[in-house]
Amino acid sequence: MMETDATFPPERRKGRGAASNETGRFERFERVGFSDGWEAEDALPPLRTEIRDEMAKTIITRNTSPDIPFDHSINPYRGCEHGCIYCFARPSHAYLGLSPGLDFETRLTAKPNAAPRLEAELRNPRYRPQVMAIGTNTDPYQPIERDRRIMRDVLEVLQRFQHPVGVTTKGVLVERDADILGPMAQAGLARVCISVTTLDADLARKMEPRVPSPARRLRAIERLTRAGCSVRVMVSPIVPGLTDPEIEAILTAARDAGAVAASCIPLRLPREVSPLWRAWLEEHYPARVTRVMGKIREMHGGRDYDSSWGKRMRGEGVYAALIQTRFKRALRDLGLDHRLPPLRTDLFRVPPRPGDQLCLF
After folding, report:
1. How far from the centroid of its chain's Cα atoms is residue 43's Cα?
2. Distance (Å, whole) CA 55 – CA 121
3. Separation between Cα atoms, residue 219 and residue 71, nearest integer Å
4. What are the Cα distances from residue 228, in Å, to 166, 223, 273, 342?
């Protein structure tokens, strides 16, 4: 059977989250495969990850959304090889002329000059430090970071400037940088948030195909804690009918591993994520489609997603309120309900460069 641009057989997308590669919403033309009568007898090879470099002109992104608790962020990569089918960042790939489907997890962009650009922006006399959030759009510790080390370089710059940073990840490669994050955390300059969506390894492999197992992520919490870094566990996304029964179990396991705080966000399905999610659900859990989608729509006013500020991160209605009630009660019972102190911005210093004139005072 001839493949189209939108559909790929399971053997070609092994280890990938999405099943299709629909043309991005900004493209004038749709790419469609067709048979020209010269079909090869051999099957096409599995999809491989492609990486291209982008020399960033600026690296710090400013955010003004009223329901997001950070102003400054850095994204060392575009796209994410983890392949989480529910990832809310998938639609951003359409801005590159690529598909939010398989392109998002196979055609990645790296920013090799992220660290020198960051240093230049931090040295700007008009710069005022705010907590730098990393991992807000795509994961800085996805598999390609092992070789590219862009995140490591960025952290080294932040450490030299004594700049506060909050890291969110599903990747256990964060352990590699415990030698930076630990001392920064002890000085009130760093915090790590590790996402644990489920404790079911089989479900996790289907839903987050290239993310380390839940048990492995719990060990990462232990190791970061031993290095002196405070860790928040993010139970996100909470998927009704799939992962919602695990809220208390995830929080208990994370607390036992050393997590000191927790947060949660119900499943979000913006733009192209919604059809990708429904296709995944129909493939892997067809008997649960009606229940899962019904609860999702109940939380979003009868739609797959409501992007309204104040609602998109929490949902609304009876079911969303029940999730929040269960979560808050579990936090209280497990001692995870206290607020962590804010990271410090008063330690920020611009380090001198060779040849700089020294300050007299």
Report:
1. 33
2. 15
3. 30
4. 15, 9, 37, 16
The reported pLDDT for the residue numbered 4 is 42
* In a domain? residue 12: no
Supply the CATH number for residue 148's domain.
3.80.30.30
CA distance 296 to 312: 12
User: How does pLDDT run across 328-340, given as a tens digit for each residue?
Assistant: 999 999 999 988 9
pTM, 2 dp: 0.92
| In a domain? residue 345 | no
pLDDT in tens, 4-23: 445 788 888 999 999 999 88
Alpha helices in the chain (DSSP H): 102-106, 114-122, 145-148, 150-160, 178-186, 201-207, 214-226, 247-257, 273-284, 289-299, 318-334
Q: Are 260 and 334 in contact (CB under 8 A)?
A: no
Q: Specify if 114 maps to a domain.
A: yes
Q: Supply the mean pLDDT for the chain.
A: 92
Q: 234 Cβ partners below 8 Å, 6+ apart?
A: 168, 193, 194, 195, 196, 262, 263, 264, 265
Give the C-alpha distances (Å, rounded to integers) separating 247 from 110, 211, 239, 285, 350.
34, 19, 10, 20, 43
Give the pair of three-digit tokens for residue 161.
């400037």
- 15, part of any domain: no
- The total number of residues shown for the chain amounts to 361
Of residues 76, 84, 183, 95, the one with CA closest to residue 136:
76
Nearest-angstrom CA–CA distance, 361 and 352: 14
Domain count, the chain: 1
Rg (CA), the chain: 21
Per DSSP, the three-state class of 220 is helix
- Reduced to 3 states (helix: H, G, I; strand: E, B; else coil), residue 244 is helix
How many other β-carbons are positioned within 10 Å of the β-carbon of residue 318?
9
Three-class SS state of 156: helix
Rounded distance between C-alpha atoms, residue 315 and residue 267, angstroms: 9
Q: How many CA within 13 A on the CB side of residue 49? A: 19
Main-chain dihedrals φ then ψ at residue 360, nearest 5 degrees: -75, -25
Number of neighbouring beta carbons within 10 Å of residue 302: 9
Range of the domain at 228: 52-334
